Amino acid sequence: MKKVILSAAAVWLSAVCLFAQSNTSSVNSTGNNNSATVNQTGNMNNSSINQNGDWNNANANQTGVQNNALQNQTGDGNNASVFQSGDYNYATQNQSGNWNSAWSSQYGTGNEAFQRQIGNGNGASAYQSGDGNYSNQYQSGDYNSAGVGQSGTSNFANQQQIGSYNWASSNEGGTNNYSNQFQNGNSNGTTTQLYGNNNFSSQTQTGFSGTGNGNYSSHYAYGDNNVSYQNQFGNSNQAFTGQSGTDNWQWEHQRGDGNSASSYQGGASNTSTQLTWGNGNQAYASQYGSDNVNIQLQGITGNDEDGYYYNAASDGNYANLYQSGNGNNSYQIQLGAGGHSATTYQIGNDNAATTSQTGNGHSSFINQVGNSNVATVTQNN
User: Fold this and answer.
1) Residues with Cβ < 8 Å from 328, sequence gap 6 or more?
2) Domain definitions of the chain by residue range
3) Which residue among 16, 115, 246, 269 is least packed, with the fewest CB closer than 10 Å?
4) What is the pLDDT of residue 21?
């Protein structure tokens, strides 16, 4: 009797193991010359492929435990590939249109990748290695390109492109980094690189009527707890920010056509604000050290506490700032018809410089070397 009981237990245990190790695959194809390939190794992986059209191709390769891949293709000539190795990873690819391409590769545990393409000739790629990373890519239009690469833990990347011929790139390495990229228009480009921990980047490019064309923005951060915002409105604006160190904060806002803003910060707890609007204004800032503050406004008045206000457009201005040391403060504001030039250099500690120019055609140059120097320039016509 005992022998019979043991045999029954063995049969039950074998059935449980077979059930626990079962993978699930579903392929539904409607049309001509479609191709679907599924390879799954491990336990409780799930793959679903749905194709409606002609000459579509879908591949799903999964190794591990409870990975999920969902691929939907509607149209002709689309390509979708998912590679997942690890446990509890999730990938979704939705394509509607023709000749779109989506590629998703994830290694680790609990990563999530979402890709949606509406239009023709779009390309999206996502690579994630580590645990708990998240990426979302949305493209609506034609011939857009988006790429995400993340390595580490709990990183977040979001890319949205509406229009045609836009491109976006985001790379993150470390823990708890956040990147958001939004573009509405045509031929815009944006790139983000975050390496370290708890860095934040948000880049938005659009125009007054809801679309902007030919804009370019770039941001990179190396270190921890750095924050950057870039907003561009209009056409052909360019913005660049770079941060190296900890707890630095940047915000660059451009409204108009052909503006250019660039800011670099190296050290700790530096702050840079550049709001440029009008046509063809330029603003540059470099800060090295700790607790330095840069504010450059062109055609705009106000501050962080009370808010910023647009005055009459000020065009063709030039503003340049360089600060090296600790606790330096620089404030440059240019109003009026434009054509102003303002340059400030401060090397040392606790220096303060203020330049205010209203009207047209003024020029200011401030150079301070040492500690606790104060310079104020006011020019009107």
Assistant:
1) 287, 289, 292, 293, 346, 348, 349, 350, 351, 352
2) 24-380
3) 16
4) 65
Which amino acid type is present at position 159? Q
pLDDT of residue 4: 37
Residue from 122, 170, 177, 180 nearest 149 by CA:
170
Start-to-end C-alpha separation, the chain = 109
CA angle 142, 119, 170 (to 5 degrees): 65
Residue 2 has φ and ψ, to the nearest 5°, of -60, -40
Say if residues 343 and 366 touch (Cβ distance below 8 Å). yes
pLDDT at 16 over 70: no
Amino acid at 21: Q
pLDDT tens digits, one per residue of 106-118: 999 999 999 999 9
CA distance 105 to 127: 5
C-alpha distances (whole Å) from 324 to each of 106, 177, 224, 293, 329 are 42, 28, 20, 11, 11
DSSP letter for 315, please: B
Q: Please, where are the H alpha helices in the chain?
A: 2-20
pLDDT digits (tens, 9 = 90+) for 83-141: 999 999 999 999 999 999 999 999 999 999 999 999 999 999 999 999 999 999 999 99
Q: How many of the other CB atoms lie within 10 Å of CB of 6?
A: 9
208-217: string of b/e by CB count within 10 Å (b at 16+)? eeebbbbbbb
